[in-house]
Each structure stands twice: as structure tokens, then as C-alpha cells.
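chain below, 492 aa
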Amino acid sequence: MSPRLAKTMELRLPAEPIRPGEKCESISPVRRPSGHAADALSGLPEPRHAIAIGSVLAAMVLVVLNTAVANVALPTIAESLQVTPAMSIWIVTAYQAALLMALLPCAALGESLGYRRVFRWGVALFTGATLFCALAPSLSWLIAARFLQGLGGAAVMALGIALLRLEVPHRQLGAAIGWNALAVGLSSAAGPAIGAAILSMTSWPWLFAAHLPLGVLVLLSTSALADVEGTARRTDLLSVVLNAGAFASLVIAAGLLADRPLLAGALLAISAIQLMLLVRREMPKEAPLIPLDLLRSNSFCVSVIASTCCFAGQTAGMVALPFYLQNGLGQEPLMAGLYMIPWPLTVAIVAPLAGRLADRWSTAWLCSAGGLCLAVGLGAASLWPLKGIPFLLVPFTMLCGLGFGLFNIANNRKMFLSAPIKRSGAAGGMQGTARLLGQTAGAIIMTLLFNLFPTDSAPQIGLGVGAVLTLLAALTSTLQGRRTESTHSEVS
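prediction:
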């Protein structure tokens, strides 16, 4: 056989046997990337790979840490810029709207132009927008800068794990997702403390300026990332507009739900109409902006549904806990913040172990166990008679952190391995969209509960609702595990 014919017939085989519930990528002739990208796919332990992985994780830290410190500084920013607290919320809303609007388009651009190029553009835009935040003389300037930050952060969040998938072998993807969760968890836990420390020493613009060196460092390190050619597929601008309009309307409606419910309802209807038009337009395409091709896979679709439910329950719990601590248990804001730390800190501690377990055990059952732990923790926090002793909440919040770490890492691994490697960008965009949709739903649920029930009882009800939603995520994963095991037995 000639070398040319042998190269043409080269097959991509899985790096390890596929376990029940995981989808094997199609065995078909492929063009293997050359140079560093080829080495990355083989998972060789080169120093350049370590720098590349560090670049992705540092970018995640940059985005998450910046968001955490910005949220904790809202009262200070509102006072400094002489605006109402309600107006300052738009600093967060603009960022979340930009994220949701741009996640799927950034994923599509990454597949078209190359993951590294779009990821680098995202880091550059985020860093430049951070400088604009630090220099903002007014609220409108700051809101615009935060919107730009959201656009840049969307590229980082959509393509981060797709790039990690190129840097590690198949059998270590769970561990890589665990590293990512460790970085996110530590950033989330440290963000409020870092923000408070900066505000105690200087003014709020330094919250953003302090991140500029890290942004520049990440930008320089992106040259080590695997450079795989894109598909050069054209992006449908009308689809991008419909996608942006649908998610922008959704986020704005969530913000207006408490004060202007009729307008919020109209915006939700507009969002639904635009989403239906988008689905109809993208349905016939081979690689649609909304990854309908991936959602046709049972494993991928169930992972997305379970992720949305889990993040909705987790967000409801995270929003309810501070109110429960302050209004129900009489804690000062500082102490309430300290009692919140064990949750993200436990996620960070559990993340590396959860990643290793996800590479060895059934991800469907790990998701079920994690969702059940999270549900039990939220339910116990809601129903347990604390008798005025808030310290009793700590073991419950740690159980929540354990459960969320197990669920999120295993579910993300399952979601990405259910997608072909050429659609890793779309999988990352959908994973980020499911997370943000769940978080938005959790916030809306808590808004409705605060409007329907007294302030002292709404947080406990919110914790109970969060427990139900995370239990639903666990049950969904359990059913998926049973279905895939049954299918595997029949095939065997």
C-alpha cells in the first residue's frame, strides 16, 4: 500500500474503550492536525502543553475573579457614582446579557476561524474592557464597558474546555475539567474577600485595574495553545441577531420581573418568538448556531437539561442563603459572607478528585450522586431546626459544595464526550448557555418567591425549591444511566 493511500485511510479511534453512556466519535477518514496540535491530541507531556493548559485556566480565573469582585462592590460603586442601588444592578445585568448573547456565536466563530484565534480575541477584548471599567467616569460608561467584558468573557467560557480537549488525551478530560472547576471554585471563593480587601485600601476602580497584569499575561501565553485550522464556515448574521435578541430580551425581562411584570411578560414573549424563528432558520443546517445536531443526541440533550436544572437549583440556594442568614438568623453582612465561603471552597477542594473519578467511573451515576448530595444539603438547610445557631448550616453548605462539584464535572465531561471533537466549540457554547439559563431561572424563581411570601420565609422556601430542582437533575441523570446501560446490554 502506498504511503499516500495509507494516509488517506487513516482512522481516528478512541483513546480508550467507551463506557456506557458515552458516545464514540465517528470512525471516518480525518485530516490529523500537524505540529503542536497533533502533539496536543496525543496528550504528550511537553512543557508547551503545560503553558497552554495554564493559559486556559488563568483566563477562567481572570473572568470569574473579575465578576466576583465587581458583584461585591455594587453598593460602593453606586455611592461613588451617585446612582440608586437599582440602577447599579445594570452593571451585572449588562455583563450577563452580553454573555448569553455571545456564547453560541463565539462558539461558531471558534469552529470557523480556529479556537485559539477567537479565544485570544476574547481575552484581548476582556482585558481592554477591564481598562475601560477602571477609567469609567459614569454609570453609563461602566455599563458599556461591562457589556464589552461580557462579549470577551463569552469567547473564553465557550472555548476554554474545547481548547483543553485538544491539550489532554481523551482519558484525562475529566481531570482537565476538574482543574478548570478548581480554578473557578477558588476564584469564586476568593473573589469577595479580595474585593473587600481592595475596597478597604483604595477606591473601586482598582478592583478592575488590579486584573490588568493578569490579562496581559494570559494574552501573551495564548501563543502556546493548539492552533487547529477552522472550517471557514460562514456565520449567518441574521441568526446571530435573532440569538442576541432572544437572550437579551430574556435577561432584561428577568431584571424587570419584580417591578414591571407586564413589560417583563411581553419581553419573555418576544424572546420566545425570536428563539422559535432562530430554531426554524437553523434546523436544516449541518452545523447550526444553536447546536440542534448535538441536541438530537440523547446523551447530550439529557446532559443539557440536567445542567440547567442543577444550576437553577444551585442559584436559588445561593441567592436564598444570604437572606436566610441575615433576616432569619440575624447575622451581619460580613458574617453572612463568611458562612457562604464553605460552599465554593468545598467545590474547589473536591474538583481534582471529581475529575479523576469522572475519568474512571460512570459519569451518569456520578451526576446522580452529586445532584442527590446537593439536594440533601439544600433541603436540610431549609428544614433543619437551627435554633438560632447559624454554624449548623456549614456542614449542609459543604455537602452542597461536594454535590455540585461531583455533578458539574461529571456532567460536563459527559456533555463534551457526547459531541464530536470538531463540534467541541458548539458543545462549550451550549454548556455555558445551559449554565446561564439555569442561573437566570434560579434568580427569577427567587424574585417570584420574594414577591409572593414574607421576607423571613421566602429564603427557606427558595432553599426547598432549589432542593427539588437539583433532585430533578439527579433523577434525570439516573434515568439516563439506566437507559444507556440497558442499551449497552442489548448491543453486547
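The mean pLDDT is 80. Residues 458-491 form the longest helix (34 residues).
thats it, cya
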